[in-house]
Task: structure prediction
Amino acid sequence: MTDFSTLTRRALMASVAAFALIASSVGALAADELKIGFVGVTSGPAAAWGTSNVRSMQTLEAMYNEAGGVKIGDKTYMIKVVTFDDQKDPKRAVEGMEKMAQEGIHYVVGPNVDDGAAAVRPVAEKNGIVYFPYAFPKELYTAPASNAVLGMIANYQSGPAIYKYLMANKGVKKVAFVAANESDPLSQRDGGVAAAKALGLEVVAANDTYQNDTRDFTPVLTPIVALKPDLLVLSGVAPANAPLLIRSARELGYEGLISTETAQDAKVLAEGAGELANGFISVGGASTPEIASDQMKAFVAKYTTMFGEYNDESNTKVYALDYILETLKANPAAIDNVEEFKKTMDTFSAPNPYLKGDAKLGYVGTTSFGQKRQLSVPMVVNEYKDGAFQTLFVGTVD
Amino acid sequence: MEQIVANGLYLGAQYALIALGLTLIFGLMNVLNFAHGQMYVLGGFITYAVYGQLGLPFVLAILASGTTLFVIGGLMERYLFRTVIKRSHREESTMLLAAATAFFFDAVILLVFGEKQRGVPKIVKGVFNDFGIILPYDRLLVGLLAAISIISFILLMKYSKPGRAMRALAQDRVAAQLMGVEVERFTMLGFALGAMLAGITGGLLVTITGVNAGIGGPISIKAFTMIMIGGAGVVGGAIAGGFILGMMESIGLTILREYGDVTYLVIFASLMVFLSIRPNGLMGKPWG
Result:
């Protein structure tokens, strides 16, 4: 009869063997997991900017993983999105990027603002990370910088296109600018003023600013509305402030056009300004019915199911993760080698799954930065009307 | 010029209402309620949910905001602040607790209500446009409701028994206790009233300026600025501070606009000079 100590020893050995088997299986699964990072703002007044990034990535993560993963080279990877809230603080953005480096992540979406994107540059370059900020300063994307790839259309690209269109089609001659007293909006305002002057527009207000925590914009808009501009540009306006600015301007009797070069959300505009927001011009991606593909519609439906409601900013934010994956598919050696990724960017081309027709994904930016360090996303200029965006025109950059 | 004055008065009324609840709590308990802004935000979201989403009457929504924050304020005082004040001899402990509750509310509000800016349909449509003044009717109505709330609050504090008890506590806690005022009961009532005021203000102003999860901190800072100007713990001081700040903003944003955003630079520089001359603010303590 086998004694108790032998039984115990056998049970112990069987447990160890089982554990080793499970651990090796988990290890094998982990090797087929592709981590993509996000560092950006998901709390505080600008939470909408980063949250739309995170939710876009998580929606795609779910869609790809439910379909069995993404095939890159001869391996299939399950996507894992790793997020970090930098609270719009550059010090925290650096912590976030360091965390990504510690986790062995080479591709990171974000940060969302100028100072965060600048702060993480040394960390990204030291640790072999290519990151996709939503920040406009040209020095981030111009040589010798090479690890940052702009994830959207910059205001100095969309602004001139919008002003030209409005000059030609709406007779705009006088323009006023107003911006929040923070680096991003001020820099966008300065770029917009320069572009407007270069086009021959009369700039009647170029110095007006407001504190970003302003709730009542009537005092700041009163002197601007009195100047009767044809176009009021809300430079770098946060989605939370846009409806309040529009409402205050219209209630003060302003009858001209209002525009911005940042992405907005139709529901936020509807709730905050209602019909007063009709005619408001902004820049978005592709989800207006005229140009959205079935894949885009499926993305919007999945996003809505997962998070309760859609955020129109995701029309642009949807692209970053797909660009990373498609570039890796084009050159699987770039999975853990960003130099290979950068080489691939110069010649990369793939079908754009989110637009109808034969639009392409590709890297652009040669005109603005001297090198291809920008995602080619559609420059869709929208006009808000009765609760939804309508496409005003579609342009391209570079 | 008339428009600038009208803007300043309206802004001042908004600010005065925001500052009242904060100054009441400070006057009673010597606690700067860092969660004041978050209570405002919660009140705004409750009104958004009841009036904006469920389509129930606006008055009911305001009642819901006020009642909810009244209960939350009472519970906070009873189970958090009272415990800390009894156990700790350091004033910083209540400040730290207040800061922690602010962070807690921020996180809960973001979780429950999401990150988006929210707004509700106008309660009154149309714009008053005469005498060189443009003022939407809904702002006029909210301004009127704010004035009624302020006057009601002053009358409550001045003539009602609980009001007199709270004023006595704010003036001299020990003396009030010796005179038979139930300290714990009226302290809790005061905190609950302060929270209720924050909630009602949030509910009223959501119709004009909407609400989002990130504005709690900035609202608190603005409220602190107003009570610094007017004098912490003094109702009249909070009202004066609100109107002074409103007028300074309105005038500064017009006169100084060509120089960029120097309005707040001037306001805070003036505040520093003023506080160095009158550190207790315009009306300071004691109460009344």
Q: What stands out?
A: Chain B touches chain A through 46 residues (CB under 8 Å).
